[in-house]
């Protein structure tokens, strides 16, 4: 049968088919730059949503770390009398809480990001990597706001900054990469198994006590330092205290292995996240 001729001047509209990557293909990281406006929008929306319908609103950004500092100072600095490298315990603990809170909040936010954004994911196409990245970056607002309190504490305790503060972005970058690597693995797992989110909470809580946040690395026996420093957040905390407070610098050799581990974890986590991406809509 001969099909009737199409009217002149009329053509079929182009068909654009969007399919997620299959298998262990390319990460297509260039797409993230193409969707940078979406990253800014989601980031701003998440920051606003964090303190919506709260009486004190954004003031909680500085209230939370201050209350935590006071409680930890009372428990670990006064009662337990843990060593603090010869520094006043309040600024000793606060300097560690800055990067730790950023890491912990970033890892948690990225891990739960797919579930929290399931409405948007099911309606609009965009690189799903955007979601956990926003979950990590949203913590930067709290971090920089809390830095203002740290500057005040340094003035109170008469600790003058030195040129070493210029190295802070490197340690912050390591904390960001660590948070994102954890977030990518757990985001893909939590979509399938929601109770993994509970496990993550316990993991982060235990991780904090395996990191010199409330205590000095001096309490760890020397023979365990090599294994202890495999924890990437040990280098981050030590780096912050060295750059801001003038404590002993973390050995460069001790940073190489954790940085390498974070790099492998981040790349493998991104590939695993991308591999499971095509099933996300069906699961959420």
Automatic annotation (TrEMBL):
Residues 56-276 form the ABC transmembrane type-2 domain. The keyword Cell inner membrane applies. GO terms for biological process: lipopolysaccharide transport. InterPro entries: ABC2_TM (IPR013525), ABC2_TM_bact-type (IPR047817). Keywords: Cell inner membrane, Cell membrane, Membrane, Transmembrane, Transmembrane helix, Transport. It is a multi-pass membrane protein. GO terms for molecular function: ABC-type transporter activity. It is found in: Cell inner membrane; Cell membrane. Its main location: membrane. GO terms for cellular component: plasma membrane. The chain crosses the membrane at residues 55-79, 91-108, 129-160, 166-187, 199-220, 252-273. The keyword Kinase does not apply. It comes from the Bacteria. It holds the Pfam family ABC2_membrane. Belongs to the ABC-2 integral membrane protein family. This is Transport permease protein.
């Amino acid at each position: 049968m001969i099909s009737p001729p199409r009217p002149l001047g009329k053509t079929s509209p182009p068909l654009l088919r969007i399919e997620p990557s299959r298998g262990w293909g390319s990460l297509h990281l260039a797409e993230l730059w193409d969707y940078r406006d979406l990253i800014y929008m989601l980031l701003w929306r998440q920051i606003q949503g964090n303190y919506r319908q709260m009486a004190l609103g954004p003031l909680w950004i500085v209230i939370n770390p201050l209350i935590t500092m006071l409680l930890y100072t009372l428990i670990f600095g006064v009662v337990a009398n843990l060593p603090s490298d010869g520094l006043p315990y309040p600024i000793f603990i606060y300097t560690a809480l800055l990067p730790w809170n950023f890491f912990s909040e970033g890892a948690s936010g990225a891990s739960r990001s797919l579930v929290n954004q399931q409405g948007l994911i099911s309606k609009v196409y965009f690189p799903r990597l955007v979601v956990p990245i926003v979950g990590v970056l949203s913590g930067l607002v709290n971090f920089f706001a809390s830095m203002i309190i740290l500057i005040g504490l340094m003035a109170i305790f008469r600790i003058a900054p030195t040129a070493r503060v210029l190295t802070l972005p490197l340690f912050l970058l390591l904390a960001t990469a660590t948070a994102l690597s954890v977030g990518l693995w757990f985001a893909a797992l939590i979509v399938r198994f929601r109770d993994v989110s509970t496990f993550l909470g316990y993991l982060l809580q235990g991780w904090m006590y395996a990191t010199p946040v409330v205590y000095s690395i001096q309490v760890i026996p020397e023979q365990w330092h090599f294994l202890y420093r495999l924890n990437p957040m040990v280098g981050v905390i030590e780096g912050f205290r060295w750059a801001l407070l003038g404590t002993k610098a973390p050995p460069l050799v001790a940073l190489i292995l954790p940085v390498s581990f974070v790099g492998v974890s981040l790349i493998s986590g991104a590939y695993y996240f991308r591999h499971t991406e095509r099933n996300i809509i069906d699961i959420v």
